[in-house]
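Working notes for the structural subgroup meeting. M.R. asked for a predicted model of this chain before we commit to crystallization trials. I am recording the input and output together here so anyone reviewing the notebook later can reproduce the run.

Input as submitted:
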Amino acid sequence: MESGHSNTHLLRSEEWLDPQNQDLKSSMERVYKYHPGLKEWLKGWIKKHDKCNYTPAQHNEYKMDCSTVRN
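Returned structure, recorded in token form:
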């Protein structure tokens, strides 16, 4: 099954979750305050999907294919 979502940045590294970064990523800390457990869930999601294949689609979007990856 394929699905799409706009603004699908490539999340290949937990570095993206670092609230110490002084760019757009740092705003995630505010989100974590209102959604307990989200940061750990995202870390798990990144780890689980690390072996998937990512190909550029349009602009900053990527197509993710995990059909060859076992959970």
